[in-house]
Amino acid sequence: MADYTSNLSSSRPRPDGMGKVTGGLNYLTDLQVPNMLYGKVLRSEYPHAKIQQINIEKAEQLSGVLAVITSKDVPGLNGFGLITQDQPVFCDQVVRYVGDAVAAVAAITPEIAAKALKRIEVIYEPLPIIDDPDDAMNPDSIPLHSGGNILHEASYENGDVDEGFQLCEVIIEETYLLPRQMHAYMETEGGVFVPEKDGRLSVYAGTQHGYKDRLQLARILNLPEERIRVISSPMGGSFGGKDELNIQPYGAILALKTGRPVKIHQSRRESMISGIKKHPMKITMKTGAKKTGEIVAHEVRIIADTGAYATLGPAVLDFAVEHAIGPYAIPNVKTKGYSVFTNNGVAGEFRGFGGNQITFALEGQIDRLADGLHISPLVLRKKNLRQGTDPGPVGQIIAPTNGDALVLDEIAQSPLLAIDKSESDNPWKKTGVGLALTMHGGGLGFGRLDPSGGKISLNHEGKIEIAFGFEEVGQGLLAVIENVTTEAIGCSSEDLHIVIGDTDKVPHSGSSTASRGTSMIWHSLQRLKGPFIEKLLDTATKISGYQKEQLYVGGKGIWLNGQRILTFEQLFLENEPISIDTKFDFPTTPNSIPGGHFLYSFAAVAVKVEVDLITGAIKVTDIDQAVSAGPVVNPTGYIGQIEGGTIMALGYTLLEEAAMKQSRYTAENFDTYILPTIQDIPPKMNVRAIEDLWEGDIYGPRGVGEIGTVALAPAIVRAIYDATGHWVTKLPVSREEILHGGRGFFDRKGKGEFAKNQYFFHC
After folding, report:
1. 312-324 pLDDT, tens digit each
2. C-alpha distances in angstroms, 256 versus 11, 105, 107?
3. Helix, coil or strand: residue 159
C-alpha cells in the first residue's frame, strides 16, 4: 500500500504539462488554416416532429456563404453510431430530439454562418413527445424507431430468488433515481477539416478513437478509409463524451463540397443541446438477508433512458447488469435491464459507464440492510465479500483478485470512521460519516472487438519512437507512455519521441476509453521490449565488437561498465531501421457473456459530511479512498485521475442534473447548470494505492480513469443518513429534501423515537 498524497515529489512533470499550465499548448480547436471557412449546424426546434419542407435558398443567397448542405448532400451513409448507425447525419423526414441536425452552412466568418442558419426555413409538424421511459415501454406508445422503443434488454439469473427471499428475515426494497449528467469538458466539440491537394481529407478533431472515426466517416463520405487522415490529439477533455461522432460529418462534407478548409467549434449551448450525456436510470432493488448477515437474494430491475438514438446504450446497460451484485457473493440473483428510446437528449458513454448508477443503488441496499439487521455496514460488507478465486459478478471466469478485501481493510483504518460525532455547539449542523465499496471492469468486455497494439522504432534523429493509436484527452497518457517505456527499455525520457493520435502515423491500439489505456500500453511494452533491446544490442555488438552480454541500454545510447560507448544516433546511421510492432487483444473472460469483463479494479471510500439543517446545504469535508488497481505507473497521474473523478462524482451527487422538461433541456449554459468549484472541494482528500496483485497475476496495472467516480455517491448518502436519519434515493441530493428530512430528525429525537446510530463502524 502506498499513500500518494504524501509522495508526489517522486513524480516527474507531465510531458505536456508546461504547455498546458502556460497556455502555450495548441488544441485542435485552436487551429487556423489559410483560406479557412467557418461551419455551423442547424439543429431541430422540436423534440419530435415530421419535417414537411426544408428551404435553403435564402441562406445560399447570403453574401459570404459558400455552401448550405442537407441530407441530399451526404455522399454515402446518412447515419452514424458506434454500434448501430441509427443517428442521421441530417434528418430529412423526422426529428427525434432537439439536437438533431437538419442542415449546415459554411461561410467566410462565424457571424455570417450564424446569420445563414436563421435564413434556413424548416416547416415542422410536431408529433407527440415521449419523455418518460416507462411511457415509452408501454405497448401502445408511438414507436420512435422501426424496432420499437426498447433498444436493448439484458439480464442475469443465478439460483432462485423467490426461494431465496423465503429464507430472509430482513428484506429491503427501494427504487433509486439517477440523473442525466453532462461531461462538461472545457473544450467543446470542434475541429478543422482540410481537403488536401492529393484528394485526401485531413480531419483535425478531438475524439477518443481516431480509427473508429475514420471508419464511420468513410461510410458517410463514400470514400476509402485510406483517403481520410484523423488527427485526434490533444483535446481539452472528453470523459466519454467524444467517443461518438459529433461535428465531424458536417465539417467533412462542407470541406469536400467547398474545396476549402472548414472549421466548426460548437458554442457551449450547442454542445449542451447536441452532446451525449450520462444515462438517467431508474433502478429498483429487492435485497434480503438472514439475521446473521448473509445476503441470500437480490432482485434488480433497471430502466435506462438512452434518449433518441442508440450510441453505446446497449453496452452501458450490459455493464450495469454485470455489476448489479458488485463484489459480493449472493447465491440467488435475478437482474433485468432495459435501455429505452425517448425524445430526450442522447445518452451514451460517460466516465463510469453505468457503474455509477448501479453501485449507488447496490451500496444503498447494503447500508439499509445493515441498518435493518443492526450490523455494522463495514462488517456486513466483509461478511458477504466474494473470495479471491470466485467467479465474477455474472458467474464468469475472471483474473483472481482480492482487491475488494484489500481496499475494505485499508479503508477500515481511516480516521474518518472513528470520529467523535458528539453534539456540537451548533444544533443546526450535523456531522455524519459513510463508506462505500465498488468494483469496476476494465476494457470493452466479451464479444466486443477490443484489439490493441503499439510500435517502437529507432528513428533518424537517434530517438526511440514509441507510437500508439491512443489519444491524450487530459488523462495523462503521455506521462504513462513515457514512464512505462523508459522503465521497460532502460533509456531516459529525453531519448523518447512519442507519437499518438494520428491515423497516418500510429498503429491500431483501440479506443482511449474503458480504463484500458494504461493497461494496454504496459502490455504493449512487455511484448516490445525484448525484441527491440535485442536488435539494439545486436547492432551495437556488430559496430563495437564487444560481446552482447556485456552491453546494456541506458540513457542516450548503449553502455558498457558504466560508460556510454555508442549513441542511439550512431546505431541508426550504422544499421538498417530497427522497428518492432505488436498486436493483441485486451484480456477477456472466456465465458460468452455479452460485455463480461476479466480484469477489475476496486475502490473503497470513506467520507465525512456536514449537513446544515437551516439551508439544507451539504458540505463534504473529508474524503479517504483506497484503490486497488495494480502497480502505479505514474503517482501524479494516479492521484489526478482519482481526485478528478472524485470531484466529478461530487457534482453528480450534490449539484449536477441536465434536467429536461418536455424533452427540452432546462439549462443550456453553465450559468444554470451547476458544477463543483474550488469552494466545493473538500480540504482533505487522501488516496491510498494498493499495488498488490494476486500471486501469479501477469496482467500488470489496471486503469484508474473511472474507478474514482463510482463509490463516492453512496458513501455521501450514507453519511447524510448518519447525520440526519434520512435516506436519500434520488440524485442530485435536494436541499429541500434535506430540510424536510433534517427537521424530521429533531422531531424524532425530541420524542425519543430516534437513537443516534452507535454501531456504524464497530467491528
Report:
1. 999 999 999 999 9
2. 46, 13, 14
3. coil
Q: Which residue has the cell 504547455?
A: 19
Max distance between CA atoms of the chain, in angstroms, equals: 91
DSSP string, 365-423: HHHHHHHHHT--HHHHHHHTBPPTTS--TTS-------HHHHHHHHHHT-GGGG-----
Q: Which of 739, 745, 751, 740 is nearest to 725 (CA)?
A: 745
Nearest to 298 by CA among 386, 390, 168: 168
Place of cell 436541499: 735
CB–CB of 48/95 below 8 Å? yes
What is the bridge-based pairing of β-strands 49-55 and 2-3? Answer: unpaired
Strands 65-69 and 101-107: antiparallel
- 550 closest CA partner among 562, 560, 542, 564: 560
| Rg value, the chain, Cα | 27
Please list the residues that pair with 265 across neighbouring strands: 190
> What's the grid cell of residue 63?
453574401
Measured CA to CA, the distance from residue 237 to residue 268 in angstroms comes to 14
Taking Cα atoms as reference points, which of 312, 316, 309, 308 lies closest to residue 342?
308
DSSP reduced 3-state for 520: helix
Residue 591's identity, in one-letter code, is N
Q: 295: which strand partners?
A: 289
C-alpha cell at 93: 423526414
Nearest CA-CA partner of 347 in 386, 384, 309, 303: 309
* Opening angle at CA 499, ends 493 and 504, nearest 5: 165
Which of 118, 104, 109 lies closest to 38 in space, CA to CA?
A: 109
Q: 445: helix, coil or strand? A: coil
* One-letter amino acid for residue 362 of the chain: L
What is the per-residue pLDDT for 425?
73
Q: CA torsion angle for 624, 627, 632, 633 (degrees, to 10)?
A: -90
Q: Which residues contact residue 75 at a Cβ distance below 8 angstroms, ignoring those fewer than 6 apart?
A: 220, 221, 222, 223, 253, 256
CA dihedral 635, 641, 643, 644 (to 10 degrees): 140
CA distance 33 to 18: 25
Give 30-80 pLDDT, tens digit per residue: 999 999 999 999 999 999 999 999 999 999 999 999 999 999 999 999 999
Q: Are 341 and 145 in contact (CB under 8 A)?
A: yes
The beta-strand segments (E) located in 691-738 are none
Helix (H) or strand (E) holding 333: strand 332-341
Neighbours of 254 (CB within 10 A): 31
Confidence of residue 424 (pLDDT cuts 50, 70, 90): low
Residue 761 corresponds to which amino acid? F
Strand partners for 3? 688
